[in-house]
Amino acid sequence: MFVVRREDPQMKKKIVAQLKQATRYEDLNKDQLREYLLLRQGSRCAYCEQKINNKQHSKKAGRVNRSSRQANKIEHFHPQSQDYSSDKCEKATGVGTWEQSPLALENMLAVCDGRIQEGGTEYCCDTKKASKDICSDFLNPNRFAVAPSSDQVVPRRSLVRVKRDGKLVPNKLYFTDEEQEERAQRVLDEVLNLNSTQLKDSRRKLLVALVKQSNEKVQRQAARKHGISRQELRKKLFNDAIAREEEESSALISVYYSYGAELDKS
Ligand SMILES: [Zn+2]
Ligand SMILES: [Zn+2]
């Protein structure tokens, strides 16, 4: 799920001004908008966290850039078409009227092309979600994205957690009672299809690799470092690793956050 990576206040100002002037989403020049969203999200899909490139999505086969697997699209968290939404949704957009909602920056997320595998026919993310409104069961990732502080420290928070088997579950920090959790889980499973076998498996593999790497490093360094417990050493090594991964804008960042949260608990 979308984790804010970097905020460029100058660029944001420009984008907001451009959106204010526009009357229809279709008329917008999306290049700058796309660039801004990608920078902000560390070039990861807002839902599945796979890496996405900066090429415009095209429905015509062959026009999508082949050098990077996932092309990106701009997704509206609240659907653009009011046929699919309720009064409650209109209120939740926080911009007053339906006409303004497609042009609200807070409603926009950069997402992948929705194919779980290249050339495959199983879909996830916004492609699977289509025009469904999920705001009564899930939270707008944009609203819960905490911007980096002035010293560029990115808060390590995500609306989701990754279990040891790679399954994505709602983060109890945000979905606080059982009913909320259940509804959010259904959105993850059914609406966004984020627990498809392949996606679950790539998360599980990354987690296994993380744990293995960490064990090996602790093993090597523990012999040399006295006066520091293995668990402290493990946490220190993890913090170094995650700082690097964030810099490189790695895919599946929630896997790292979930592993880090597990370390903090122990
Ligand atoms: Zn995606
Ligand atoms: Zn909505």
Mean pLDDT: 84
Structural class label: mainly alpha
Compounds present? zinc ion
The biggest beta sheet reads: 2 strands, antiparallel
The helix count comes to 8
The spatial strand order of the largest sheet comes to 1-2
Number of domains: 2
Q: Any overview of this molecule?
A:
With 266 residues, the chain is mainly α. It has 2 domains: 9-129, no CATH class; 160-265, no CATH class. 40% of the residues lie in helices and 5% in strands. The chain has helices at residues 9-21, 30-41, 87-92, 125-129, 178-191, 197-222, 230-247, 253-265, and strands at residues 73-76, 108-111, 160-162, 168-170. The strands form 2 sheets. Strands 1-2 form a two-stranded antiparallel ribbon. It has a two-stranded antiparallel sheet with strand order 3-4. Helix 6 (197-222) crosses helix 7 and helix 7 (230-247) packs antiparallel against helix 8. The model is unreliable at 57-68 (pLDDT under 50). Bound molecules: zinc ion (2 copies). One zinc ion (ZN) binds next to helix 3. One zinc ion binds at residues 78, 85, 89, 92, 133, 135.
